[in-house]
Amino acid sequence: MRNRFLQLAFVFVLALTTIGAGDTGSRFNSIGHKMVCTCGCGQILLECNHVGCPNSSGMIDELRTQLASGGSDTSIFNAFMAKYGPTVLAAPIRGGFDNAAFIVPAAVFLLAILGTAFLIRHWKGRHMIPAGAAAFPSSHTDIMRDRIRRDSEF
Predict the structure, then answer these.
(1) Which domains are seen in the chain, by residue range?
(2) What are 125-134's pLDDT values in tens digits?
């Protein structure tokens, strides 16, 4: 009975550590894919593929250290932002201006496209009338043409 209890306790402890390790790994991937490498490549931190990148290995080690110390996602993001600046984030984590900085350029672009389409449709819908045709009926046009011929003959 005692052996069964020890076996059950061993399996239970093994299961708990495995579940915890899987959670840390998924958390590592989740946080690492929300940050950008600061070497200037513009790639996601865990996907930076530069050979001998001076920044990614140090940042990844720092991320592992912060995860091992038990920091929350927000505290880890704040620590990285304090050290590397707000450009380290691939997506905003806060509200307000951070969200506006990601949403406003796309909204302005879409509004510009819609405004341009409306303007083209408006211009296309107008009927252009030649300047001389509206001013004189056809009989006046003939009279004017005859007068020009007479005045231009020598």
Answers:
(1) 2-93 (1.10.8.640), 94-154 (no CATH)
(2) 776 665 555 5
